[in-house]
Design brief:
Length: 287
């Protein structure tokens, strides 16, 4: 999508320091540390230069969702854990919800897990409300409002602005999926009974197709991790091995998340200049 910035007033670039990212090129997700994606600033789900979804907010009846912790296993995988409290429930917040988010080269998947620590079953209605989008990342960076025209291609599939990008919303265990292109609104709903001392798992995701970008994800094994796995780290002192290993593993995962390749030659691999604004080949930053 070609954007003429003269048509949009320049404003302050959205801040990123308080956000949590999960990235596996060319897809990236930026959310609050709780895992909620609000329609504010740079938050959203992206593929290359397009924001696919601008918000994804989880609701559990009328419960308050209190964020407890965020754990990132690697650049493309994060788990967000919260406690739930609501009027009429036992005072001790023993219902825990975790959003396990995985980002791949062709989309995003989440497993939402509820753990009921109470002695009685809990009947709840869970919903995930999404705002469908197609905004060019240049407009997101300038914090400019844009309402690109969306086209519905299937029951839960949408596209926009002849960019060659389409997205499909999915859930194999939802009770209902509402999907309305004119209002850009979608809601996934689950009616669940969570047994005492048990776990309940729910699933949703977005499959993304991009046929026009000049770059694509590399084929085969992610090269940075593959290279480091063959390195000899025996020279690291024993008392630093664990810390050094975590540092190397994290750095390798971060680099892997930025790997891209030419679409016509998927073995011609390079590092994108950076997320979220420069997810492309960008001069000396990618050398």
């Amino acid at each position: 999508m070609n954007v003429n910035l003269k048509d949009y007033p320049m404003t302050t670039q959205p801040f990123l320091h308080a956000l949590t990212n999960t990235i596996h090129s060319p897809v990236q997700v930026w959310s609050t540390p709780s895992g909620q994606i609000h329609p504010v600033g740079a938050q959203g789900i992206y593929c290359f230069d397009d924001r696919i979804v601008s918000s994804a907010i989880l609701h559990v009846d009328q419960a308050e969702i209190e964020h407890l912790r965020t754990r990132k296993a690697n650049a493309g995988h994060a788990t967000f854990t919260s406690a739930l409290k609501a009027e009429g429930w036992p005072a001790d917040p023993k219902l825990i919800v975790s959003r396990e988010r995985s980002v791949g080269t062709d989309g995003v998947s989440e497993m939402i897990t509820f753990q009921n620590g109470h002695a009685k079953p809990l009947k709840v209605t869970i919903s995930l409300e999404l705002r469908l989008d197609g905004t060019d990342i240049t407009l997101v960076k300038t914090d400019s409002l844009s309402e690109p025209s969306l086209t519905q291609l299937g029951d839960h599939t949408w596209s926009w602005a002849s960019t060659g990008v389409s997205a499909t919303l999915r859930s194999r265990d939802a009770t209902t999926i509402e999907f309305d292109i004119p209002t850009r609104f979608s809601r996934i709903t689950w009616d669940a009974t969570i047994a005492p001392r048990c776990r309940t798992e729910l699933h949703w995701g977005i499959d993304i197709t991009n046929t026009c970008a000049p770059f694509s994800a590399p084929e085969g094994k992610r090269t940075v991790v593959d290279t480091l796995s063959r390195m000899n780290l025996d020279s690291i002192p024993a008392d630093l091995q664990s810390d050094a290993g975590r540092l190397v593993s994290t750095a390798a995962s971060d680099l892997d998340s930025l790997l891209l390749a030419e679409r016509c030659n998927s073995r011609d691999i390079f590092l994108a200049a950076g997320a979220p604004w420069f997810f492309t080949l960008f001069g000396r930053d990618s050398l």
